[in-house]
Amino acid sequence: MSLWRQLAHGFGALTRRTASKQQIDDEVRHFYEETVAAHVARGLSHEDATRAARIEMGNPTVVAEEVRDYGWENLVATSLSDLRYGVRVLRRSPAFAMVVIIVVSLGSGAVTTVFSAMNALVLRPVAGVGSADRLLTLSPIRSDGLILQQGSFADFSYLRGRSETLSEIAAWGKVSLTIAGPSEGTIVWGNLVSANYFDALHVRPYLGRFFSSDEDRTPLAHPVIVVSHAFWSARFGGNPDVVGRSILVNGHPFTLIGIAPRTFRGIYTGVRADAWVPLMMQPLLRPRADLATSSWLWIFGRLKDRVAIESAQAEFPALMTTHARESGEARGPAGFRSMRVFPFTGLPGGEGVIVLRFLGVLLAAAAVVLLIAGVNVATMLTARSIGRARELAMRAALGAGRMRLARQVLTEILLLFLCGALGGWVLSFLATNALERVQLPVNFPILMELSPDVRVLIFAIVTALAAGVIFGLAPALRAARLDITAQLRDGAGDGRWRPSLLFRVLIVGQLSLSLVLLVSAGLITQSLVRGQQIDPGFQMARVVTTSFEAESWGYDQPRARAFYRALRSRIQSMPDVLDVSYVSRLPLTGGSTTEDIDIGGATIGVQIAAVDADYFSTLRMPMLQGRTFLGIDDERSARVAIVNDSLARHLSSDRLVIGQTFRFLGKPTTIVGIVGDAKYSTLGESTPLFAYFPIAQLWQPTQSLLVRTEGDAESIGPAIQQLVLALDPAVPRPKVSSMKDATSIVLLPHRVAALVTAVLGAVGLLLAVVGLYGIMAYSVQRRSREMGIRLALGAQRATLVGIVVREGLTLAVLAIAIGLLLAAGAAQAIKGFLFNVDPFDLATFAGMALVFLLIASLASYLPARRAAVSDPVSALKAE
Amino acid sequence: MDPHNTDVIQGTLDMLILKTLSLEPMHGFGIARRIEQVSRGVFKVNPGSLLTAFQRLERAGLLDSEWRQTENARRAKFYTLTRAGRKQLDVETADWSRRVSAVARLLKAEG
């Protein structure tokens, strides 16, 4: 109540400012008049009474001021007047204000851009989902401790009815859908979902309905489909009558039952889903035998009310153990032990954490730029407060309190930082826009929505104001702590000005921080270069690739086999083509498939790939022993496999493995060859145990085509497209790219990190050097009289240049020493991110220090030369 | 002017104002004079502090105010004690007597 009254009175006083001022003035005047009257009543003359009242009460105006100062609203009022005054002051020196705002914008823009990406990819709740904080992602943990993103249908349906802590458990898997149109089909990214998917996410249909529980029971019974608002608008012109109509999906008639709300695009960050179909339609849309037990479903759940996430986590080990026992599966290292729960984000499982950690490193680098910017501004503000000393001293002499002055100066500084925050926000818009346009080498529709939102704006303002307080406080307090008389007596200073200790600390600070950025950028760039030089164990030059998803065209297995076979033989007969092959998953695209093999009584988890006959010759991988796959290794002949060198050594120390037999997916399989080790999912991986199987025997409907050519790799793309469309005009036109481009995603984090740190390093260096230049120029200007006297006394100009340059270089060398120490710490922190680069790489450290020294010398030499060429007479006259 | 007058003890001004107003509504000058007279000139109230105290007490809901004519036909702001003000006065009076007797005991014991 009291707080309310305070607020009400305060607002009343604020809105009726003149009225409340009048009341106080009246009350004071009444008091004064009564005092005078009392003195007159005691027998004084009116004149004497007035004097006596004055002496007794003091100046009525001052009394009224004192009374008016009471209340919080006066703080607001004085802050507003500080702000108005600040705007006026800054408008008087627009160049200074602009420079400060630009510097703050650069620093703020750096952190805001990285934070914006962080916010968009990990922090921001998935668009369109209701009460996302109660949702959990369930990720299976394998017996060997590996956490996977996806689980199997068997896991999902076992858990669904049994969890005590989750009210809903839902699952989804991806599926490529080709939705037929009037002329040509559209390929869209679709989701196979459990019927409760939308309910669990708290998503309501925009039109029509979502799936009902009976659509979740019988395989193939309910061909129904929900499409996105965007797809509905683009394809059906937003016509509400299409709901209920039949459309062709992968060649089969489906009933369109509903439209998802505009904001909802599935729950996987970065990929736009356009259609949803019931899980029960999987045999039709992804007709693969092993989908019941293989891991292809993302599983998530909604916590029951008042249940903590820990109790959900505690529930799963027992449930999964029972499940394993009941399903009677003997589980090897690749078997599942439990489910791990994660907070629900658009990047399921541990992926969000990885992205967050990566962006965290970039955020730290960006924060260093903000730090440099802040130090830079602090230097400028300190220099300016010296220039403004006379004005401030005048105000102090007129009775402004020191705290009041400090507050005034701080208000100005915060005003500048606030403008800088807005500038930074705008910069982050431009930067994220540029980032969104970067084409990623992936074969699904990317939705990179990195642009900043209100949360990012708040972040920008808060960080900039915090920086403003941190870096503005010292200059503000310095302004308040002036020696009034000295300043008013001799406004020009004594002419022997040298950069004060504070200045030197600030300059050294920003120089050393920018060196840290430069060294980090150097290390990461080197890591990128080395990464590109890593021998992956095969040759990518002159190989082009594209991928096909025969299932989504409605092809069954025989038809798909015929298609792949026909395409291969037609490409083989093209001129310049050396080798043609298919592979189930293109190497160096980040993914891998692991399965158990049983050999000699042991179960080993190995990575596998299904490849076509000429795979090893297409990629120029060396056969070490035995034979390669041949055309005769087809679905009718005996099962064969080729192992990599590491698996051969693992099985037998002298690699005597040719002819050995193991069981794979229940079938006896004979090893017929050993091939050289190669990188598979990433360049940084340690070589996995790897087994290759003929794609004809381990059938995969989704295959990547690899073509090695002698001729121009560019021109073969259109020819391949024509061959594909000649075979079946209804097939979506494939995207052919060089294998180098298609696998470039494997170095994407390094490329992004190298680019970002290089840009940040350049900005940081620029700011720091401009700071050094500025302070040297300022120092020279303040010392022009000293320089003039020295010249007049016969000093050589070269000597004067030497004095100034030495001063600048002393700072630079000190900064290099500190910067290198800090950089060593930073290198230690990013060590895990560097491959084949020593975090204390001498060449990088020394090289960057040298570059730095050169630039710093230039930044000190230019002002020094100006000092030396100045005319001694005019310098002495100026004061 | 009495050279021996004292500034009102820190923290007691509010209580003195409340006590003075508990008799009848009064304006600022009236309250100042009453405090001076009743204390026989020991307490001299600084008008700045007094008027600021009115602002504070009014915001705390202990006083109400209204502009009225005085007996000598001037317009003045008259203050009245609210119910909360009366309660607060009781609390502060009790508190004050406790402190005074405690201090008195201490001084006696020392002597």
Describe it for me?
The complex is a heterodimer of chains A (879) and B (111). Chain A is built from 27 helices and 22 strands. The two termini of chain A are 63 Å apart. Chain A has 879 residues and is of the alpha+beta class. Mean pLDDT of chain A is 83; it is low at 490-497. In chain A, a hairpin with a 2-residue loop joins strand 7 (246-249) and strand 8 (252-259). In chain A, strands 1, 2, 3, 4, 5, 6, 7, 8, 9, 10 and 11 form an eleven-stranded mixed β-sheet that branches. In chain A, 52% of the residues lie in helices and 16% in strands. By secondary structure, chain B is α+β, with helices and mostly antiparallel strands. Helices cover 55% and strands 18% of the residues of chain B. In chain B, a hairpin with a 5-residue loop joins strand 4 and strand 5 (75-81). The radius of gyration of chain B is 16 Å and the shape is globular. Chain B starts with 5 loop residues before the first strand and ends with a helix. The model of chain B is unreliable at 1-5 (pLDDT under 50). Chains A and B meet through helix 1, helix 2 and helix 4 of A and helix 2, helix 3 and strand 5 of B.
Attribute tags:
heterodimer; A: 879 residues; alpha+beta; 11-stranded mixed sheet; 52% helix; B: 111 residues; 3-stranded antiparallel sheet; two-stranded parallel sheet; 4 helices; 55% helix; disordered N terminus
In short:
The complex is a heterodimer of chains A (879) and B (111). Chain A is α+β, with helices and mostly antiparallel strands and 879 residues long.
Identify low-pLDDT runs of chain B. Answer: 1-5
Strand content of chain B: 15-25%
User: Level of helix content of chain B?
Assistant: 40-55%
How would a crystallographer describe the biggest sheet of chain A? 11 strands, mixed
Number of helices of chain A: 27
The N- to C-terminal Cα distance of chain A equals: 63 Å
**Count of beta strands of chain B:** 5
Instruction: State the major sheet of chain B.
Output: 3 strands, antiparallel
* Secondary structural class of chain A: alpha+beta
- Please bin the fraction of helical residues of chain A: 40-55%
Structural class of chain B: alpha+beta
Q: Kindly report the average pLDDT value of chain B.
A: 83
Q: What is the C-alpha radius of gyration of chain A, as a whole number of Å? A: 37 Å
Radius of gyration of chain B: 16 Å
The percentage of residues in β strands of chain A lies in 15-25%
Counted by DSSP, the helix tally of chain B is 4
Largest sheet of chain B, order of strands side by side?
Answer: 2-5-4
